[in-house]
Design a protein that fits this description.
- It contains 29 helices and 2 strands.
- By secondary structure, it is an all-alpha fold.
- Helix 2 (25-38) packs across helix 6 (92-104) and helix 5 packs antiparallel against helix 6.
- The longest helix is centred in the C-terminal third of the chain and has 20 residues, at 481-500.
């Protein structure tokens, strides 16, 4: 079947004449054969993400030789039909280089040709084993770092990046057809733009250098789409770590306004009204888009939507009855409803807290308590304080722990400084501030005060053999009690200094 498919691919482009400046078939073959003979290894991640290889483990010369050869193949001006013919070359390394050249074109129509080699079991260039080398240790010899790679492994990983689902060992004919039958005649798909974006910033953060210009070109192609498709595509490709290089949150909010209430509510029921097969796959990206809209409900929806949102929440919570393996179990349904009808916010949010009492619901509970303060306010501060100091295991919490994350969330609005002062105020009898909470508060307070209350050098001196964890976690491992007690004394000293400096950073606070 693959043979016939490759022949069909070749026939489909016979009329597309290559550029006069492109290398001839003989020149291309000789170039690929020379690279195949000289290249010691080919790192798959560099191929997939269009990035250079670090010299830390393989040495400067080997890295430069690898990157030079990869760039020549990945970005060479080779005729399509010549690359097609080289996919049938006797040398598996030449076939691999043809795959790399096709993949570098970022043309989804080339996936058909790439798929023909998904089960090619002949050995190709060796790859590099993943390795973690502690500082100060000498790098192993190159021969110790190499591992076998087949031609099919390269092809399968290329297809996988585009979203072709497959079992271990290669892409079967059935798996490829299941993917391609819904995309064969399309001009665009979400997954195709995703590949372009990821390769534009080379799959790494922070985004820097020429990646911004490469991403700009991806954005230009997305901007050419019909209005709604453009909006959904930008929403689903939003990268929180991407510094707004592709799209900013302000732009997303404007796009949501342009889509309008009716389309947003359809989206909240998983209906984007799009024929893009990738947009019908419900995953974390769709859930993030839903959460974004819910988080801006007061700007995008109407007060009358309050009860509808609570009904949608109940629908999501009944996922077992409909055998749904991927519901959005989020406090943001309740938070959005509370935003729309603030006079009901307290009752709605108290009810939401009851939904998130599991061991792994720490972050969800924190979101509700932040909303309780923002929407209800001063009357809830003792209720918030009780939760804030309740020593619960930080299972399922973000790495900093609930106290630090709560302080960071609240501090996004400077007007919330009195609540932070209240929570830090040991004179009220509070006990149990975590290391991460005081450290986070110190960095925030330093900015607000205009001078360091606790210097960065002091913050860096804090240490514990178990790392950056909560005191509740330290208490459960008493082997380091002496270090824990020393750290607790230091953290208490810091918190007292922050409280003493309260007039500098929160002059409106009164006990």
């Amino acid at each position: 079947m693959w043979k016939h498919l490759l022949q069909a691919c070749a026939c489909a482009v016979l009329l597309a004449a290559p550029s006069l400046a492109a290398p001839t078939a003989e020149e291309t073959r000789k170039e690929f054969e020379q690279i195949a003979a000289e290249l010691k290894f080919l790192d798959l991640s560099c191929v997939l993400w269009d990035r250079s290889l670090g010299a830390e483990y393989v040495g400067q010369q080997a890295a430069q030789e690898h990157d030079k050869a990869l760039a020549e193949v990945m970005h060479g001006d080779f005729a399509w039909d010549i690359l097609q013919s080289l996919l049938r070359d006797e040398d598996p390394k030449v076939r691999t280089l043809a795959l790399v050249a096709l993949f570098g074109r970022e043309d989804p129509s080339d996936l058909q040709a790439i798929a023909t080699l998904a089960n090619d079991a002949e050995l190709s260039f060796p790859g590099l084993k993943p390795i973690s080398l502690p500082g100060g240790f000498p790098a192993p010899e190159l021969s110790e770092l190499l591992s076998d790679q087949t031609v099919g492994h390269f092809a399968t990983e290329m297809l996988g990046l585009y979203g072709v689902r497959h079992a271990y060992g290669g892409v079967t004919q059935e798996e490829w057809l299941a993917y391609w039958e819904h995309r064969a005649n399309r001009s665009h798909c979400l997954s195709w733009f995703h590949v372009q974006y990821e390769r534009a910033h080379r799959g790494s953060h922070p985004i820097r250098g020429d990646a911004f210009e490469r991403i700009k070109k991806v954005r230009e192609r997305i901007d050419a789409l019909e209005r709604d498709e453009r909006a959904w595509t930008l929403f689903l490709l939003y990268d929180r770590e991407g510094s707004g290089a592709l799209v900013t949150e302000d732009e997303l909010l404007q796009l949501a306004r342009e889509l309008g209430r009716d389309k947003l509510e359809r989206m909240l029921t998983y209906d984007l009204q799009s024929d893009d097969p990738d947009k019908k796959i419900i995953g974390w990206r769709h859930h993030w888009m839903m959460t974004f809209v819910l988080g801006h409900a007061d700007q995008l929806l109407e007060p009358d939507d309050c009860d509808w949102l609570l009904e949608r929440q109940a629908y999501e919570y009944n996922y077992r009855e409909r055998n749904d393996s991927n519901p959005l179990l989020s406090p943001w349904w309740s938070i959005a409803a509370a935003q729309l009808q603030p006079d009901r916010a307290r009752d709605i949010l108290y009810s939401a807290i009851g939904h998130f009492q599991g061991r792994f619901d720490c972050d969800e509970r924190r979101d509700v308590y932040v909303a309780l303060w923002n929407l209800v306010g001063e009357s809830e501060k003792f209720f918030i304080q009780e939760w804030f100091y309740n020593r619960e295991p930080d299972v399922g919490c973000s790495s900093l722990g609930k106290q630090a994350e709560f302080i960071r969330d609240i501090a996004m609005d400077r007007s919330n400084a009195p609540l932070i002062a209240f929570l830090l105020d040991h004179r009220l009898g509070w006990k149990g501030l975590d290391w991460s909470a005081v450290e986070s508060a110190a960095r925030i307070v330093n900015k607000w005060a205009g001078e360091p209350i606790i210097t960065e050098d002091e913050l860096r001196e804090a240490w514990h053999p178990l790392g950056y964890r909560s005191f509740a976690a330290y208490d459960s491992t008493p082997d380091h009690r002496e270090e824990t007690e020393a750290l607790a004394r230091l953290v208490d000293k810091w918190s007292r200094r922050l409280v003493q400096a309260t007039p500098q950073w929160c002059p409106d606070y009164k006990r």
